[in-house]
Amino acid sequence: MSIFNCARSHLNLPSVVKFNVTLLKSLYSSSVYDLSSLNSSVVPKESDSCKLPQLTIHEALKCKLSEKLSLKGWIRSHRRLKEHHFMTLNDGLSPKNIQIVVPTILLERKGVKPQFGSSICCKGSLVESRGPEQPLELYCEDIDIIGQCNVLEYPFNPNTSKNNNWNGMREHIHLRPRASRYASLMRLRSDLNFEIHNLMKESGYFNVTTPILTKNECEGGSKPFSVKPIDYPDDVSFFKGKAKLTVSAQLHLETAACALSRVYTLGPTFRAEVNKSRRHLSEFTMFELEEAFIDDLDVLMDKVEFIVKSLASKLIDGQNENYLDVLKSTKYDLTYRLLGRYIRLTYDDAIEIINKKQDVQPAEFGKDLSAFHETVLLEYFEHQPLFITHFPSEIRPFYMKSDGDRALCFDLLGAVGGEICGGSLREDNYDKLKSRMDEVEGLTEELDWYLDLRKYGNVPHGGCGFGFDRLIQTITGLSNIKDVVPYPRFLYHCPL
């Protein structure tokens, strides 16, 4: 397909638009770049340049030789050899770069000095590249600096900066999307977000917009943020009761599941975490689902395993060229582990395995497993995904269905992020649920509507919540959750 047709399909150009295809002969010979053609009549005037098709780099690399076009982007590398400057251009829409060949005489005539990080508009002709790194390059006939970059002060200067690693990028979160690896990570987040919605649609789930402002806490062990208007009197309640930022959408999703059967949501969650570890943030993204008429914990775990494998497979087999930069720099093999065997282990068996290990702090029965104990278990099973089930009911939230003194629940551990998903069957017996709620002062009165779900057309149901960011940690192998969230918020840290 010619560049004319390529551009027309993207820009709806009229068929009468024509391009000068003879200029290539005067610009580029089989042996040397010909500078003699760069006179005032060759450099496009403003009225001519507006006729050039504005393509993305990804689109331009699919077009044929000899046509003229205009490209915009940021300079990723810049070197000078004799009479030409060679620049690598990227527009952020994909990891694909294109080499721009700019005659030095053109830069001198225009009085411009493009540097690494500068944004430019370059007009010229696609020619066959002489280098082995790329099949095509753009021979530049005109160039404009859109935004200059002071390369000496730029934090991500590849020649002088010490910030071109994950720790360094964390110090400049407003600029780190410009680093190629972090741009790859953001494309991966975008694709994973899309794949979740697509998979849930295909699986018959309805997306529900759940509130960020709420009166319930849902997770008993978490600390919510309270909300009130600025400069509002402390003794006056804006919402007729204390409002909080949501710590989970689960209870709201249960109301929808009891009408639509299969529902999910994907959105922000807030918890006042005082832990500044590699696994915790005060704001993070949760992917939560609830389903009616489900009464078997193994069936729920089967669904979770299917979801994780489907998403991991999409990212590996689909558009992974969009984020190879981030996968190459981490433990890419961990992603493939998500496609293999998933271990299922009871809480009792997990305690036994941990306590058989020598030189390991023993796990205390009747208490939650620590991050250290989770790591011990993952190493024992060679970092395969691990379901831990049937925790003691007394250390699980009130809404979980129990079998004797054990909650019908699970935690799914990933190789890097720790717990990436937790779920359970929900208690559908009115009397048992009310008894558990009565144990917490004021909870029954606060969540009387939650009990109503068991009074009118009650059904067995269950659900789970994925830590979206921890799932990305497991896919990429990045050990610090602050590196997979574009704008991390945690204790003493809320910039921008």
TrEMBL record:
Residues 186-486 form the Aminoacyl-transfer RNA synthetases class-II family profile domain. Coiled coil: none annotated. InterPro entries: Aa-tRNA-synt_II, aa-tRNA-synth_II, aa-tRNA-synth_II/BPL/LPL, Asn-tRNA-ligase, Asp/Asn-tRNA-synth_IIb, NA-bd_OB-fold, NA-bd_OB_tRNA. Keywords: Aminoacyl-tRNA synthetase, ATP-binding, Ligase, Nucleotide-binding, Protein biosynthesis. The keyword Lipid biosynthesis does not apply. GO terms for cellular component: mitochondrion. Its EC number is 6.1.1.22. GO terms for molecular function: asparagine-tRNA ligase activity; ATP binding; nucleic acid binding. GO terms for biological process: asparaginyl-tRNA aminoacylation. PANTHER family: ASPARAGINE--TRNA LIGASE, MITOCHONDRIAL-RELATED, ASPARTYL/LYSYL-TRNA SYNTHETASE. Belongs to the class-II aminoacyl-tRNA synthetase family. This is asparagine--tRNA ligase.
